[in-house]
Specification:
The protein is of the alpha+beta class and 193 residues long. Helix content is 38%, strand content 27%. It is built from five helices and nine strands; from the N terminus they run ββααβββαββββαα. Strands 1, 2, 3, 4 and 5 form a five-stranded antiparallel beta sheet that branches. A four-stranded antiparallel beta sheet has the order 6-7-8-9. Strand 8 and strand 9 form a beta hairpin. Helix 3 packs parallel to helix 5 and helix 4 packs antiparallel against helix 5.
């Protein structure tokens, strides 16, 4: 079964302050390229919040769910190697009653976002079983996670999330190796599921 050829984009936005105050969001690429302009508005000292974004076929399929962005990406990146090996995995958000369910399906991943604490008996699905090419999903997840690390490195000041950023870098190393290995297996036709 060949991967679903579907144009999609996984990214994140950062909140310029407390999301409960209805503050503006800034796209990750803008936060990185204009860090000097946004550094005073991003609450590095209190913890930076963000939300994952997913566009499929140029249409947004995921509404904003604010959560501590570094820990959100850690939870997703940490499960990626297992998903690449064919295991379904969940990643729960820290401060909201939401989570992600990643279910391998051949060379695709079924990406779901649910509310509740149980992926298999959710209160509701915000995104249900969106089929995405697994390797490309992994590569995009790594790319956006590295971008978040780069935002913190460019900020170069005191940040409450500094230790979490170090944790993200560690899980990124493992995930990058897993994606590289899966890509090689795929290119040599030895992928198994």
């Amino acid at each position: 079964m060949s991967p679903t050829k579907k144009a999609f984009g996984l990214d994140f936005n950062l909140y310029l302050g407390d999301p409960d105050d209805g503050v503006e969001q800034v796209a990750s690429a803008d936060a990185l390229s204009k860090i000097d302009a946004y550094a005073g508005q991003l609450p590095f000292d209190e913890g930076v919040y963000g939300c994952l974004t997913l566009e499929v076929g140029a249409k947004s399929v995921l509404g904003a769910i604010p959560d501590p962005i570094v820990k959100m990406l850690i939870s997703l990146v940490r499960v990626l190697p297992y998903v690449l090996e064919g295991e379904p995995e969940t990643a729960l958000m820290q401060e909201s009653e939401h989570g992600f369910l990643l279910e391998p399906n051949g060379e695709n991943v079924l990406f779901s976002v649910f509310s509740g604490s149980d992926a298999y008996e959710p209160d509701d699905y915000l995104v249900e079983a969106e089929s995405l090419p697994l390797l490309e999903f992994g590569e995009q997840l790594i790319k956006i996670s590295q971008r978040l690390v780069d935002v913190f490195k460019k900020y170069d000041g005191e940040a409450r999330d500094s230790e979490a950023v170090e944790d993200l870098e560690q899980v990124l190393d493992v995930a990058q190796d897993a994606v590289k290995s899966a890509r090689l297996k795929d290119e040599h036709g030895i992928r198994h599921h």
